[in-house]
Specification:
Helix 5 runs parallel beside helix 6 (205-219). This protein has helices at residues 19-29, 57-77, 95-108, 131-139, 158-177, 205-219, 228-231, 241-249, 270-280, 321-324, and strands at 2-3, 6-7, 33-36, 83-89, 114-117, 121-122, 125-126, 181-182, 222-226, 253-257, 260-261, 286-290, 301-305. Helix content is 36%, strand content 14%.
Amino acid sequence: MHSHHSHSGSFCKHAAGTLEEVVLEAIKKGFKVYGLSEHVPRYRERDLYPEEARFGVENLGKQFDAYVAEAHRLKEAYADKITLLVGAETDFITDLDSSALHSLLDKHEDNIEYLVGSVHHVNERPIDFDRDTWQQCLSSFSAGPADGMDLDDEGEPPYTAYLSSYFDSQFAFMERFRPEVIGHFDLCRLYVPLMRFNSPKYEGVWAKVERNIDFAIGYGACFELNAAAFRKGWKDAYPGEDVLKLIISKGGRLVLSDDSHGPAAVGLNFHLLYDYMVRMGVRDLWYLERHDERNVAGRKIRAIQYNGDWKEDPFWSQFGPELERGV
């Protein structure tokens, strides 16, 4: 089986363990293809997370360079046991991140094999660090003070502007970089997982969701089914049911990701991911592989459809017979 999105304590300050420990655990769990995708650097001191503040912007850049080198060392060292893909998870805070990513990709050339295109900030504020900072982000779209704003009321006016901004950023990033994997498509509702984008309360939002899905499918992107949502308290993976139904109906390509942040999270909750896919009627899975010809983004990688019934893959047997029945 496959996973396309992971982090380690070696190169991510909010993760644990070394990159090699993550790789060894992926081998132990029986992954055939495992994507390494540490975060690209951020370029303003104000955008650094608390655990990064003492490290500084310049050192984050050096850390990413060290990641690329170590990932390729591991790729070669364990080539007889697992296929490692060396990628990067992106972010889009301001145009500075966009121009800097162009430079980063030029610098590393084919050593960055694919991109996980993610958005973690809206209106230059983080949306998944904690609930307080997410609320600050929401408040930035409100005409009045945040005091008294009921975050459990899905009809509050800031939601429409907030969601629209998120999906516009996602679309702009896809237009510029054509990421091979669309990372946690609906991260914007992390703290309100029951929110449904097609509600008439969020005027115009569903149209943006559909626009983004159509564009990604048009250039050949894959949408990750991301198991990290389960450890965040969701009953679904990312993306949630409404978005996943739309992707499936349009023939979008789906890949798997654990979004691990250390060896303990490698393959974590894949049994729940299996159940979610069965419940949602997922028939086809895809995975990435190196390829001699360049794709539309200029990278030497392509998506391959899983051959056969993914539910019959021996990988799933580690989770017990109840999983094999899809219950």
